[in-house]
Amino acid sequence: MLSSFLSDNKTAGLKELQRYATYFIIFSSGVSFTERERIKAIRALVMAGFIIGILAIYQYFVGFRHLLDYISKRGINDQFILDYICRKRVFFPFVSPNALSGYLIMILPLTLIYKDRLWLLMPLA
Prior knowledge:
Layout: H1 2-6, H2 10-31, H3 35-74, H4 79-86, H5 97-111
Helix pairs in contact: 3-5
């Protein structure tokens, strides 16, 4: 907070402060969850990661072909885009492969929390 107020560019400092304040609010709300709410939140995150993983697998096997067809129909010949796609590094539904991998790596430990993996599928009592 202090660096935001003492910076030369106060607007940029306040924008960054707002970002960190949002992270702090999310963290503090997660800490105040009950056990049942934590399990629900973890299930939602893991299921979202599963769906995103399915979308990424789809892109790897089918999506690049559709994307190349779309680019050729539109007459897009930007070398950066073609090189990005020809490397076949999966990025869907994110903008870059690094963002996708970062998300999935953060979700992976949540799936390993309990020894019994069926807890994701069982209803909460």
